[in-house]
Amino acid sequence: MNLILTLRILGSLLLFLGAALFTPLPFSFYYGDGVWSTFILSAVICFVVGGLLFRFCNSPKELTVREGFAVVSFGWTIFAVFGALPYLLSGAISSPLDAIFETMSGFTTTGSTILTEIEALPQSLLFWRSLTQWLGGMGIIVLSLAILPMLGVGGMQLFKAEVPGPTADRLKPRIQDTAKMLWGVYFLLTMVETLLLMFGGMSFFDALCHSFATLATGGFSTQNSSIGAYDSSYIDGVVTLFMVLAGVNFALHFQILRGKAREFFRSEELRVYLGIILVATVIIMIFNGVGGVYRPFGENLRYSIFQVSSIMTTTGFGTADFELWPVLPQYLLVLLMFIGGCAGSTGGGMKVARILLLFKHAQVQVFRLIHPRAIRLVKLGNRPVDKDVLQSILGFFALFIGVFVVGSLLVAASGMDLVSAGGAVVACLSNIGPGLGSVGPVDNFAHVPGFGKAVLIICMLMGRLELFTVLVLFFPSFWHK
Amino acid sequence: MNLILTLRILGSLLLFLGAALFTPLPFSFYYGDGVWSTFILSAVICFVVGGLLFRFCNSPKELTVREGFAVVSFGWTIFAVFGALPYLLSGAISSPLDAIFETMSGFTTTGSTILTEIEALPQSLLFWRSLTQWLGGMGIIVLSLAILPMLGVGGMQLFKAEVPGPTADRLKPRIQDTAKMLWGVYFLLTMVETLLLMFGGMSFFDALCHSFATLATGGFSTQNSSIGAYDSSYIDGVVTLFMVLAGVNFALHFQILRGKAREFFRSEELRVYLGIILVATVIIMIFNGVGGVYRPFGENLRYSIFQVSSIMTTTGFGTADFELWPVLPQYLLVLLMFIGGCAGSTGGGMKVARILLLFKHAQVQVFRLIHPRAIRLVKLGNRPVDKDVLQSILGFFALFIGVFVVGSLLVAASGMDLVSAGGAVVACLSNIGPGLGSVGPVDNFAHVPGFGKAVLIICMLMGRLELFTVLVLFFPSFWHK
């Protein structure tokens, strides 16, 4: 591990964070919320630390896979630490642990909050809070489609974005080109949603913040009662649509922009993803209808599809308290929490493609028992999946369950009840936001004991970085030659 | 699939069941409980149906792997159906669904009961109830060490009993020889426990019934409050010891009898199994001690190690209501429910060896990311594990979680709450007995809605037969050439 090189890159990331800390300033001045100096001070701290690291850590060596892991894991961590400065310096959040929780929840696009009174925050801080999610989403798209496939993490090789045009004939498609194209899509979708929300009566500020949180599948809102505060079926509809879009592989969105709509719908993962949302919505509507939760069909559809999309895409916005729904809908939502969005989207969870391959693997295993001499490969969209990739995906699944179990155990040890502890861990590990029990859709994470919060911060990071990226750091052999 | 041959073998199994139905008669006469005719009638029904099948279904063909699956799955099913006759004919259980639930729970060595007043049952029926577990345990030992490895189910190839002596040089070690040796161990341990329990003051009848249930890791008791009814630390200790022994691979017990104690403790699975019991007990004792559940050290040890052993080995006996313990101990017990005993024991669950290999696989996956060119194989006890076996085990894990999820969903749909539904399914799928919530250690399954009971019956069967054995039957290609 080349620590010097890693520190240099982390330094440059801090310089970028410093620059990002200037963006809330216009809102601070416009609303006169009086916290502008906080952002400038935070930016200065980032510039000084980042500048020193960048200046004095110099290494002539090339970046290798190992530094890749370290940069990604530590990069997200320092963003969570330094990005928490505005909360702390303004006094909006007094405990450093709470501030880091909130920022990690932002940059990992989780959306779990320790704030009990969101609307009391100065506007510029609310903007920063939403921006952390949007920046986190930008990071994730490139991470999942360009960086992790190169590092070979958790079967992500399957989802490498294939960059068209001038880079196609180069041996190593450059991360920068891929990033630019995907970010173009991300930016465009954010702008379209902002306009559509403003059309529905939202202020520019609210529309922008909510679009940031939607496209990142983050779920931070500027309102205490999330999207429910607007009580508008139009807004619910727009947000539902964009949540579902944000849960789709961004490389597919890029195909659509290039006019290749057929390519888009040919994706097996996409079809399964939409199928799950549809089937879950129908089942939940039946139970909610029979259970008398929602009487008119339209109302039932509106609230059911919103919560399904919000949970499945791991956004975590809310318009209804699903803990008041019948047992089966609740159980289905818990299930969706583990599945999550598509690979290459900003959504978290285990990802639809992995679940799909797991299911196919199990099917092939049963088939082999009946036909011991037949050869049947696991395929994804007609292409056979490499054995090593499949093993990696199976390992990911086992690890995900393992981390969930150990995390829940630790959070339960901190004094939470069984359902709330499990709910909190899956909410953070899958980067959703709200969980169950005392951290349910109308609650927050303020009351979680300190030790529990620390565990949840690690869960958010591990879940967001596809587990392996963080776990390698705990192997002693990672650190020496 | 050769249906004729399958039916013939099922017929011979029914003849065996008919013979077994005579064994409760001495108890019926001794206690004068007046239900002797019930057993004779049940036996006659088995003889008639079994005899007809055996006589008229005749096939000159050889048994193949497919008939193997069918015989095992349908064999357990007809035992559950015909074994329920004494409950129904005596009127002790009036609903056929309930009676089949109780019998399936017996033959799968689960121990979940729909009886609310166990002590009200005639003695001979209580004996039959315990005997179903003991016979089920006999079946499981041979199934897991001789039959499933041959069929290649869920990685059980790893645990094939290696038969020493005269059969070693034959190409196909015969199931019968293996069975005889393993049953010898099983019988011996049952007798020793019976004697030790009688020494502690239990009647011969109670001692025999509880030994049957212990060695089978079944958990049916003759008392409403299970082993807790005796309130004796000696009896708790004896039962704890034999539960732990029953959760060990019976091929290892055989090694000890042959004087190869070193072989015994060299088993990596055994060491991990004992390690988990030890560590779980210590952690639970700390939390129970600090939580003030048990004050004196001895009392804490006695109750903590008993429930840990009972759950981990999937026996399900109880001496305390662990739902009154702090959250973490409860959570740990839930975890143990999924793990279960050793492969080749009478215990259920996913089996320690599978969990161990899963963990090693994940470790190797992380290692490979750091050292992409290094070759590191997953090993069990110094022997590398074949890739196909590993894939099969990974598939088993995914399926187990999948069946648990779908099962819980269905039971929740029948109207049970989230925790109770999940608890009931894992209790049945891992063949434990008691679950959580409304089916907790001091409750029973009487109140579960009919649909839920049907789902749980299938869970018991699937769990006991290592999932794959039952699942193959649902593949259309299983039925044609």
- How far apart are the termini of chain A? 7 Å
Oligomer: homodimer
Helix content of chain A: 55-70%
User: Could you give a short account of the major beta sheet of chain A?
Assistant: 2 strands, antiparallel
**Structure class of chain A:** mainly alpha
How many individual helices of chain A?
21
Global Rg of chain A: 22 Å
Strand order across the biggest sheet of chain A? 1-2
Number of strands of chain A: 2
Low-confidence stretches of chain A: 163-172
The rough form of chain A would be described as: globular
Task: Provide a concise account of the structure shown.
The structure is a homodimer of 481-residue chains. Chain A has 21 helices and 2 strands.
What does this structure look like?
The structure is a homodimer of 481-residue chains. With 481 residues, chain A is an all-alpha fold. Chain A has a domain at 379-479. Helix content of chain A is 64%, strand content 1%. Chain A is built from 21 helices and 2 strands. Chain A has helices spanning 3-20, 25-31, 36-56, 65-82, 85-90, 96-107, 123-151, 175-199, 204-215, 233-246, 250-257, 261-266, 268-290, 297-312, 327-339, 352-370, 387-413, 418-429, 450-464, 468-471, 476-479, and strands at 379-380, 383-384. In chain A, strands 1-2 form a two-stranded antiparallel sheet. In chain A, β1 and β2 form a beta hairpin. In chain A, α8 (175-199) packs antiparallel against α10 and α13 (268-290) packs antiparallel against α15 (327-339). The longest helix of chain A has 29 residues, at 123-151. Chain A is globular and about 65 Å long. Chain A starts with a helix and ends with a helix. The model of chain A is unreliable at 163-172 (pLDDT under 50). The interface between A and B is large, with 56 and 56 residues.
